[in-house]
Structure formats: structure tokens, C-alpha cells
Amino acid sequence: MAITDRFCPRCGERTNNEGLCNQCKVAETRWFSCEPKVQSVQCPSCGAIKQGNVWTDTDRNRDDLAHDLARNSVHVHPDLKSPRIDVRLNNMSSNRSYAIIIVQGLLYHLPVKGKCDIEILWQKEQCDRCNRISGSYYEGVVQIRAQGRFPSPFESQMAVSIASDIEESLQMGGERLSFISDMTETRDGLNIVVGSQHIGLLISKKVTAELGGRFTTHPKLIGEKDGKQLFRITYSVRLPRFQKRDVIKFQQKYAEVIQVESDNIRVFDFFDGKIKSVREDKIDKLIGNARNAEDAMVAFSDGNTVGIIDPLSSATRESVVGPSLKLKAGDYVRILRDDDQLIILG
Ligand SMILES: [Zn+2]
Ligand SMILES: [Zn+2]
């Protein structure tokens, strides 16, 4: 026996270690532990889960959540190498599951394997967002109106889709209380009821950026909470009198609106094909919107006179067109009507 040989002080076996042999080290190490009971709190309305005091949206199902909870309830010793945790799940009832957990790995070069059971309690609680929505809590209303007219169906649809997109991206970013609790079309326009001032502001900015016009904010004190004043804000969005693609009449000419600035309107003149600026008060008449134009066929073209077959009456009507529009019989054009006259949009 060499003088350098060492022996385990517990079992007397030969070992290379300074102290206990590997087997005895394993035997005296509590190398894993499990929490016997864990609970999951989930919102019955929207499925959000609560960790500590924080709610988060999730699209994981109950089995996925159970596996996560089971794994997270296991604590392993830092010396355990290549740990592996397997979970077998038994769903006992709607509010209780059991999980059997097998933990294995290498500890001091020796394979180890252990088992524990945990109980998972499923609890239901209404989340912060659903609680606010069901309690009709809101922080603002975005009112979409138009100057001297009602918002068009196109504008209302655009506003609804802008608002929904903003809500979705804020929710994805974790702003749970930036929700829309109601969107209603009233006689005067669209009302969007919002859960936070942030989402109200973003909707008002995006709607005016896309559809023109401007908005003003009107806060109203509604009370006090924890020494802080609570305001509810009305975002009053005013869409411009004319909208993009409106066809207007000014100085005996017809033109299509391509851009609306504060009181200056950029139009495309159908007669000479040029882009012009017109002041709002110089516009004589709104003919309609190019989105609602009808298709009609060209019957003949003679110099700057063209004959259009009226799709309603099938009669041919003559119109004078500018040099920018080259038409021949059989072509299709889009038209709007100014009383008896057909306006060719090109
Ligand atoms: Zn030993
Ligand atoms: Zn909820």
C-alpha cells in the first residue's frame, strides 16, 4: 500500500478525494428538493396569469402551464451535472392537479435519480384589465367627428382599424390597461372608449395623421385616488371638411383632392392634369368621392368631346375633356355625377 493512498473516513473505502468518497458525498447531499404545493392564478375571462402581483397575458394552455409550474418548483444542487427533469401530470379536477417529477443527473461522477410529487392548485381571479372593463372604468373617450359633415363610412372604418391595431400592439408590449372597452357609431360620428390616456393619445395622433384634421384634448376631473387627482380626457378629433379623393368643383372646374393641409387643399385638376392649391372657401361644391365612382364605357371620342354611355340610362352623354385625357371608343372610365353631367375621373 502506497503512503499516498487515502481512505474515506465514513466507509473506509479507498478514494482519491480529500475527505468523503463520492458515494458518501452523494449520500449526505440533499441534491434536490420540490415545493409540495404550488398555485396558479388565472383570469377566467381572458386567460391572463398572475405571478406575484403582476398579471401577464399568455397563450399557453393548462398542461403547458402545469409543466412550467412543476419544473419551476424543483430546486437542484449546483453540483448536479446534466440535470434532467421529467413531469407526469394527473389532472384530478378543475381546480387541482398532481405532478410526479423525476429528477436525474450526475453528482460527483455518479448517476443519481429521485422523485417527488407536487400538488398544483388552480385558482381563478379576475385580472386587473377585465376588472376595469367589467366595472366600466375608463380614462378617456376619443370622439371622431368631421368639420361641417359626418365622417364617411370609409373614415369610420379606418379609425376602427387604426384603433384596433394600436390596442393590439400596446397589449403585445405589455400595456395591459391600454384597452378599448367600446367603439360605438353615434349620430355624429364614432366614439372610442379607452382604458388609458396613452392609448387615447396614440389613436388621436394616428387618425389625424392618416385622415387629416386635428384634435384637442379636454380633461375633466372625476375624483381623487391615493391623493392623486383623476382625470378623464375627451380627445376631440375633427376630420377636415374635405377628405382625400373627394371630387370638388371650383371656378367651373372639377378636381380630385389629393392632400388636405390646414386650410389649403391640394387638388388634381381633371381638365389640365395639373396639381393645384385651392383655399377651402374657394371650393363651390362637393361632387362626391372617387371611391364611389361608377365605371362607364366610352362610345366615341372626337377632339375634346367624348361620348359616355350612362350606365344607368344607357343613353350616350357628351362631355368635354382636357388634353391630358386620351380616350377612344370602348375604353372604360370612372365617373361621378354632377346633376345631369357625368364627370370623368380618368
Ligand atoms: Zn465513503
Ligand atoms: Zn382578464
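^ zinc ion complex. Residues 8, 10-11, 13, 20-21, 23-24 surround zinc ion (ligand 1) (CB under 6 Å). The chain has four domains: 31-124, 136-239, 242-291, 293-346.
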